[in-house]
Amino acid sequence: MNAIFYKEWIKTRGYLLLAFVTTLGFAGYAMLRLNRVVGLKGAEHLWEVMLARDTVFVEMLEYIPLLAGVLLALVQFVPEMHRKCLKLTLHLPYPQLRMVNLMLCFGLLSLLLCFVANYILMFSYLQAVLATELYARVLLTALPWYLAGFAAYLLISWVCIEPTWKWRVLNLLISVLLLRIFFLSPAPEAYNAFLPWLALYTLLTASLSWLSIARFKAGIQD
Amino acid sequence: MIRFSKLFFCLTIVLILLWQLPWCYAFFAAKPSKIPFTLYSGISGDFISMGQVEGKGMQRRNQSGQVYTQEQTDSLLPFFYVRQLVSDERFPDTIMGVAVTPRKVQQTNFSFRVNASDINAAKVPLYPLMESLSGRVDLIMPEDVFRITANGIEFVRMKSNSVDEGKSRQFTDALIKKDFRFPARRLAGNPTARKDYDEGYLILDDEGKLFHLKQVKSRPYVRAIALPERLNINYLFITEFSDRKTLGFLTDTQNCFYVLNNKSYEVIKTGVASYNPETDGITIFGNLIDWTVCVRTDEAATYYALAANDYSLINSFSLKEEASTIRGLHFTSSDDKFVKPRF
Predict the structure, then answer these.
(1) Domain locations in chain B?
(2) Which positions in chain B have a beta carbon within 8 angstroms of at least one beta carbon in chain A?
(3) What value of ipTM does the predicted structure carry?
(4) Prior bond to B183 cis, omega within 30?
(5) pLDDT at B324 > cutoff 70
(6) B120, B124, B140, B141: best mutation site toward chain A, by most A Cβ within 10 Å?
(7) What's the topology of domain B112-320?
(8) Are A124 and A34 in contact (CB under 8 A)?
(9) Which residues of B touch A193 (CB under 8 A)?
(10) What distance lies between CA B20 and its chain's CA centroid?
């Protein structure tokens, strides 16, 4: 396991550092903008706007986790497919599905680290200026966006691992439609009741990659 | 494991088809709603509907099918078209035996609208309580907001994000003195400075008793409102219309619709047969003589004409609504602001 994680780390460390800094930068910038509103118009204005309108002031973060997930999948799996490294990896004396699961697990843990850092940053600032009800609203509203990051990573990995272009296009279409579910409503806390089910479904999408691996192993190619 | 992933893939395809096919059908075959805008005319004693008719353009007609011109409609609905009648110098001195002036009409006219999606949405349980008697013409937003917990009412200063213990104790004591049981079951207010006056909040306590809370000269004003026997209030709406005649609207667990009069705190059952705020939309256009109430459900739009003095039913009629969506998997709905799967 450590060897696989190390291999993935060597492959993606440059991007992971960039993703960590960029996502944290965007979260930090969103907090700076909030701080600017507090500085210019007072905390009262921030509270009043959040209570009166359907806004949470961090809307700029909406597609950042999605982008981070998509790019991580591309960085991790495109070289594998392009240089045919995956074929070598799957020939190692280790169960193939477990191998793929560990590769995906590495990606998910890296994203988790990135996103948790984002949440810690946002929580640290928001709890100082907003009441519990208000900062919980901000963090809960952003949660489906971050979950979309995990889903995007798993789905785009599935697309990348697929050995034929015909299926790759179909998988991409399915992935786009599934990712659309995470962005159906701009209303704050619209996903609260659906989030546990969405999280479970997101985890299960990891199993789609097994199909592509099975086809890859069977030698199906363009 | 591969069998599971195949099953999961098939399930995903089925769900996507169940979701996207009805959506595509609705997208390409969507038709505009044919429910016309309708108001009750006390002068003609009938509802007048205004809407586009295919091949005929805009038509104004009553329920018997009689077609009116725009000028005739202005005269039949003088409360609604008051500005037009004044501009044409056709505004009458009396309407249905009641002496009127444009100013009086504009002061007593009101509109009220609530959709199911306003009710079925995640809300922040923090409420600004304005000063109702500041002595100033314009209302100003307060520097704190309150929450109602299981033990009392808690005011939080927005600037410092800290609890104002003194004010919280003062208001909690005032509510307890009136036999209020914490926490609150429901709460209705209109926390905006863009209104003529402030009536604070209507609050339903944990035992279903109704209270009126506002802030007068920095002190709590709490009034326990006596409800008729066996009336279980379900939803509350504060009105704050410019004529100050009503304080709020209420619905009970049987979906009956009530008006809560201002000052006398009298609760009067209206002639509206049924209104469920969780599933229906309501629009009310009121004037000095009568109110036109439209309750819109998924199946029909029902119009009620109520007398403005005692809210009794004068007339009603119903228009069937054509189903605009086909069965399938939907994640959003016009009845709420939540995303969740619904078949």
Answers:
(1) 112-320
(2) 1-2, 4-6, 8-9, 12-13, 16, 19-20, 121-122, 124-126, 128, 141, 143, 145, 147, 156, 158-159, 161, 191-192, 331-332, 337-341
(3) 0.87
(4) yes
(5) no
(6) B124
(7) Neuraminidase (2.120.10)
(8) no
(9) 338, 340
(10) 33
